């Protein structure tokens, strides 16, 4: 975390972060997970459309020394997901110490065939984190920790502190694809080019856009992901602009990666169409109101502080239900709304119609202080009357403080 001091960390199959998993659409995954921590944990597959009892939410938590072996079929199409702990009250602590990893879902679509996909060669993971540490290197995660006055806020790319170091990558192909995840507990990260050029965004967090879109920057709230490509003839430095998401946090612009091309190939033009996205006509959808609330130090959804399974609000719905939710932020704080199980489309953002990359599919989206979003989704494939999916703020401290509700999708 900081040079000259040692930090306690955690990881999957290692000391910090975890391996990238590749899942293929239509295949079946089996994971054997052993909890070597000294606390309960769960492993949640963020953004995956899988049964509720395999989702890795709080009801799937397992104790120190125990194992959990989820298995499920991959119904998702090509996209970039991630995995992280999700036990009640300990998510921020466990994630900031390093429990996070990427999941790449591969499919056999024409778009996938046309895009770079050789991991580590022309398909590059970028796991960005802005953490809080004291001068001894101790990583902080809760209010008491964040309010200490000796903190620094290191920015990490793939586990390396980039405050003073800019990582380097030699691209042996002219076109490189990047998959970027904001795995910070709360800070907002905006990715841009240091030379002011555009990024060619190809996917939001739940799959390809209808076509590649030139963007000046990509703003990711906690938990958000995106994919972009760059066709390079000269070196380019990527920058992360950090904005505090919580009571305190990082700030500033960090050069995190310089990509230097060493390639002589000339890639084909990107396909003019990457995906077909039928926009929902929500006129016959069931409407629901969700409020993100605060009561002193407690956080709530629909007035209920979701720190236990009994205290949290539960949204009950039926398999096949098509819904349009208005999510209203009644606080003046920043929130990152995340829904498990199915992707959603944005119908309105603070009263305005979405445009550009906001017409893609999402599972996590910013709700600014006093703002609101309207989203639409369809609950398909999986019903369970015991296990719930979750909806919550992905600022992990807010989630742990109770801004979480259950979602039960039942047969009827
Ligand atoms: Cu990334 Cu409910 O979590
Ligand atoms: Cu929040």
Commentary on this structure:
Helices cover 5% and strands 42% of the residues. The protein folds into 3 domains: 21-107, Immunoglobulin-like (Sandwich); 114-261, Cupredoxins -  blue copper proteins (Immunoglobulin-like, Sandwich); 282-410, Cupredoxins -  blue copper proteins (Immunoglobulin-like, Sandwich), CATH 2.60.40.420. It has a 7-stranded mixed β-sheet with strand order 13-12-9-15-20-17-18, with no helix packed on it. With 412 residues, the protein is mainly β. The structure holds CU-O-CU linkage and copper (II) ion. Copper (II) ion (CU) is lined by residues 335, 393, 395, 398, 403.
Fold topology:
Elements: E1 21-24, E2 28-30, E3 33-34, E4 44-46, E5 67-68, E6 71-73, E7 79-84, H1 91-96, E8 101-106, H2 110-114, E9 123-130, E10 132-133, E11 139-140, H3 143-146, E12 155-157, E13 160-161, E14 167-171, E15 175-182, E16 188-193, E17 199-204, E18 207-215, E19 217-220, E20 225-231, E21 236-243, E22 252-261, E23 286-295, E24 298-301, E25 314-318, E26 322-329, E27 335-339, E28 344-349, E29 361-362, E30 364-367, E31 372-378, E32 389-393, H4 396-400, E33 404-410
Parallel strand pairs: 1-8, 9-15, 14-22, 23-26, 25-33
Antiparallel strand pairs: 2-6, 3-5, 4-7, 7-8, 9-12, 10-11, 12-13, 15-20, 16-19, 16-21, 17-18, 17-20, 21-22, 23-24, 26-31, 27-30, 27-32, 28-29, 28-31, 32-33
This protein binds CU-O-CU linkage and copper (II) ion (CU).
CATH architecture of the largest domain: Sandwich
Shape: globular
The molecules bound to the chains, other than polymers, are:
CU-O-CU linkage, copper (II) ion
- Looking at the structure, the CATH topology of the largest domain is Immunoglobulin-like
| CATH homolog superfamily of the largest domain | Cupredoxins -  blue copper proteins
